[in-house]
Write a structure and sequence with these properties.
Helix content is 56%, strand content 14%. The chain is built from four helices and six strands; from the N terminus they run αββββαββαα. A hairpin with a 4-residue loop joins β5 (96-97) and β6. The radius of gyration is 22 Å and the shape is elongated.
C-alpha cells in the first residue's frame, strides 16, 4: 500500500503493532496453566454432523471451580462427539459425562511439564517480537521509498524512523510483559 505521508506510515505501524500485541495476548490465553479456563478448549473442534465446529458453538462452557471445566451440550446426542474431540485434541485432558453434562478435570502440572510449556511460551514470544520487527522493517522501507521519491524531506524521514523505532520498542516491551506474566502464572504451584 503506497503511503502519502509520514503520519499514514506511523498510523499503519501503530495499528499493526497493536495487532501483534493483541495476538500475543490471545496466544497466551490458550496456553495451559494449572487453572481451568474456557480458553483452554478453544482449539477443540467437534465433528458436528460432519462439520468440524468450535466447541463453544455446540455447547455452553463453565468453570465452576479452579480445576474443573463443565460442558453443557445444546444437543445431548453430541456428548460422545464432544468427548472424542477433547480426547483427540492433545490437551492431556480426560472428560467424563453423566449423560447431560461433561466434566473436564484440569490436572495440576508437573514441574517438567511446566518447563516445557514455558519453552513453548518463549517460542511464541519470539515469534511476536519478530512480527513487530517485520512491521518496523516494512514501515522503514516505506519511509525510505518516500524519501527517494522526494515525497518527504530527510528530516521527516529521520523523525519517522525514530518514531517507528519507539513504537517497535513499546510493542516488544508489551509482548515481553504479557510473556512474563504468563510465565509467572505457569510456574505458580
Amino acid at each position: 500500500m503506497p503511503f502519502e505521508s509520514v503520519k499514514q506510515v506511523l498510523d499503519s505501524a501503530r495499528e499493526r503493532m497493536d495487532k501483534v500485541v493483541a495476538d500475543m495476548q490471545h496466544a497466551v490465553s490458550i496456553i495451559r496453566t494449572g487453572r481451568a479456563t474456557i480458553h483452554l478448549l478453544e482449539p477443540v473442534r467437534v465433528d458436528y454432523y460432519g462439520t468440524p465446529t468450535p466447541l463453544n458453538q455446540v455447547a455452553t462452557l463453565h468453570v465452576p471451580e479452579p480445576t474443573m471445566i463443565t460442558i453443557q451440550p445444546w444437543d445431548s446426542s453430541q456428548i460422545r462427539a464432544i468427548e472424542r474431540a477433547i480426547l483427540e485434541s492433545d490437551l492431556g485432558l480426560n472428560p467424563s459425562n453423566d449423560g447431560k453434562l461433561i466434566r473436564v478435570p484440569v490436572p495440576s502440572l508437573t514441574e517438567e511439564r511446566r518447563k516445557t510449556i514455558v519453552k513453548q511460551l518463549h517460542v511464541t514470544t519470539e515469534e511476536h517480537r519478530v512480527s513487530a520487527r517485520n512491521v518496523r522493517r516494512d514501515c522503514n522501507d516505506a519511509l525510505k521509498k518516500m524519501m527517494t521519491d522526494k515525497a518527504i524531506s530527510e528530516d521527516d524521514e529521520k523523525r519517522g524512523l525514530d518514531e517507528v523505532q519507539k513504537l517497535t520498542d513499546a510493542s516488544i516491551a508489551k509482548v515481553d510483559s504479557v510473556s512474563k506474566a504468563k510465565e509467572k502464572e505457569i510456574m505458580e504451584i
